[in-house]
Amino acid sequence: MKICTVGGLAVALMAGGLIAAAPPASAGCLYGGPVISKCDGPLQPDGTWERCVAIYRYVPSGLSSHLVPVNRCGLMGPGHQYPPGDFDFIEPPARIEG
């Protein structure tokens, strides 16, 4: 009986950890293309949301080189404008729904 209780408690704690680590249900992501990923956070009461874009950066290193992921985040939504050439960040201009 004691073993079943301890085993059940362990399973419940593991499931709870997975649920807590999951992204919010309102977050949406796009993968691939010219960027690694593009994810939108939850919608705020003022109509804004945070968008994070992961891109590759070329890093020369001696006789070789490699690509390093770089993450950029910023606010999107009403009243937030980005430079016209920053298409990786602003496309799509609407929120990415999950």
TrEMBL record:
Superkingdom classification of source: Bacteria
Domain CDGP per the UniProt entry, residue ranges: 28-97
Protein name: CDGP domain-containing protein
Taxonomic lineage: Bacteria, Bacillati, Actinomycetota, Actinomycetes, Mycobacteriales
